[in-house]
Amino acid sequence: MHLRAQALPLLLLALAWLAEPQRADGQVEAEQVRVAIERGVTYLRREQRVDGSWPEHPGVPSGITSLCTLALLNSGVPPDDPQVQSALNYLRKQQLSMTYGVALQTMVFCAAEPKTSQALVRRNVLWFEQHQNRAGPLKGAWGYPQAGGDNSNTQFALLALHEAQRIGVPVNNQTWQMALDYWQRTQNDDGSWGYKPGNSGTGSMTCAGIAALIIAADKLNEGDARVEQGRVVCCGEQEDNTAVDRAQAWMARAFTVHSNPGMQGVQQWLLYYLYGVERVGRLTNQRFIGRHDWYREGAALLVKSQDELSGFWKGTGHAEDDTRVATALSLLFLSKGRRPVLAAKVKHEPAGDWNHHRGDLANLTSYIETRWERELTWQVIDSEVAKTDDLIEAPVLFISGNLGPQFSDEEVRHLREYVNRGGFIFAESCCGGEEFDTGFKAVIERMFPEPEYKLRQLPPEHP
User: Fold this and answer.
1) Model-wide pTM > 0.90
2) Is the dihedral of CA 242, 243, 244, 250 positive or negative?
3) Closest alpha carbon to 158 in 177, 145, 144
């Protein structure tokens, strides 16, 4: 059952409607989020200095300027904007010295001018490869000069290397392997990570671990399909990422948007944690963490806590009491809602049968991004948790499997309502799955038992 090319114009119309987050249970409205982003951008613009920089944090050269520039770019300010260009000119002149600053600078170059900044990005990649720990208990990590390594610096290095490789700058496989080994080796027994190996787990550092493992493993794994003698061979054994599963289980148990989990009542680094949640959401494409709609809850909190007069945010703890840092981190979270949802992949029973090709929607989304020249996103939606309002935010639901899909009566009702409200279901029987084909047709009969709604083959001349 295929989505034909003629359906793409309909997708475009659906994406236009979905360009902003929609209202849920009265928590937050799309217009509130749009205005909050606009006011935050205006505040950062006001704070920029004549030379293109923002006041830097002591000991982190170019860090805050890079962070603010990245926030503006993610919030929709175009790369050719005069203030962005001024910031880029400033950043190009800065010396490489600290992991945070080099990482954020790299991400800015990749986001703003990926084609013309390749030489600078390649220079920065070499710097990271030279400064990664290569021996001892912190092998594979990055840190402050003369201070070994820590999980915060290490995640920023990997985020930068990830963006570099996305724009075509190669990264040594040994760098990825050492980083992957480091995160796997230092995970706590409960699935979490702290600031340094052996520290009690926190939400911000567990988010860092999830993102780092996904990035490093993705760069090293061959994927779920390969081409042999002109034929696609797929549906073989998949390598499980149990470390990520354990970390996500910890996050599901501990999740909140009101504090950084694991800080034991200390209200610090909340906005840094929320930025970590956003990265986990973006890299896993999970709409929910446990039963929490993480974006909606976080957006509602940030809209409520924005300064009513000046449009900035202010956090507590190291660096977050700087309103420029706090505002940039808040914008990086909120800007996730600006990315239109291309499609949602439905997690369904039997367990594991829904995800034989783990890179399918990710690869499709990446391809369409290059064709449409705009950033998109996709989601994983658990059919057991999602209601119709959750489903309808995706113009296309992708349901795939090898065995007969199992949906409860309530889930079937939500699928029917989704289609009745304009949704499009794209179903794929994969890995020779005749059981899926038969089972999905049975699901359709349960969705639409009326005789006039029988599933049938469309003729070639159907519009």
Assistant:
1) no
2) positive
3) 177
